[in-house]
Amino acid sequence: MTTRTEAVRSIGGVRVDVHITAGARGAELPPLVLLHGVGTSALSYEWLLPRVPERDVYRVDFRGHGTSERAPGTYTLEYYCEDAVRVLSEVVKRPAVVAGFSLGGMVAWTLAQRVPELLVGVLLEDPVMFRDPDWATSGMPEFLQWTIDQEISWEQRGLSVDEAAVELAANSAGPGVTMGDILYPDAVVALAKGTILRDRGTMQAAIDGTMPNGVDIAAPLRVPAVIMAASADVSGVSAADEATLARTHPEIAIHRVETGHDIHNSFAGRDLYVRLLREFLDEYAR
Fold it and tell me: Strand 3-9 relative to strand 15-21: parallel, antiparallel, unpaired?
């Protein structure tokens, strides 16, 4: 499979890169657009390409991430949404299925409210727009700050991506468990590279809570949607959020997966992620 990269100029003239892999039946089928989480990059979806060989796949690097241009002060929902709209309008140029993880899920949710004409449907992997009131004391801001401190340490020691990945894999993910025990090796490398490439400001906007400014959790989604949620104790979609969604958006199916937040990169979640994605594509994108 061969991949080429195209770029669009998004709001503020920021260059946003799109990595395009042609499928065997690309002209016949709606394409798949993949939106990564905050602090990572399009590389985190490279493993998925052989699992959808029939379909054109567009992997976006949001501003400040991967190979796209940095744009301090613009790492919020409105700018990320505009990045995605420009890609859909100027590069994809036909209605697509959008699958987004975390930040990418929040963006896909918003696209489904605002620009349904550009979409076939959306698959949301543990989106982060549902936040408990105690976000500041949840421990998550401290975890995100730790990722910044780790990146600075790697830079100061001159670690390569592979060296950083080895260190990342050895980090604790709980009592007696390392990140390498939970995540696929390719995911660890992609996370290390995404961490090294990203603008640290992308993480700061997540830490201080400004990243999701403007998200609308009440308005209906105007295309088919499915949510994959991680274990309730670590998920962006808590048990309370799930109950609320059952009242406000009863048409959205929610699949709870007993994994950490990063479902598609985990040993426990990847196969189920692929199955649910393919089921969604088979139902809505034939």
Answer: antiparallel
pTM for the complete prediction? 0.96
Fill in the amino acid letter for 189.
V
CA distance 99 to 118: 13
* CA–CA distance, 178 with 118 (Å, rounded to integer): 40
Tokens for 70? Answer: 């940095």
Q: Please write the tens of the pLDDT for every residue from 42-77.
A: 999 999 999 999 999 999 999 999 999 999 999 999
Please check whether residue 230 is in contact with residue 259, taking contact to mean a CB–CB distance below 8 angstroms.
Answer: yes
Which of the two residues, 94 and 241, has the higher pLDDT score? Answer: 94
User: What's the rounded Cα separation, in Å, for the pair 9 and 18?
Assistant: 11
Domains of the chain: 3-133+211-284 (3.40.50.1820), 136-202 (no CATH)
The secondary structure of 54-113, three-state, reads CCCEEEEECCCCCCCCCCCCCCCHHHHHHHHHHHHHHHHCCCEEEEEECHHHHHHHHHHH
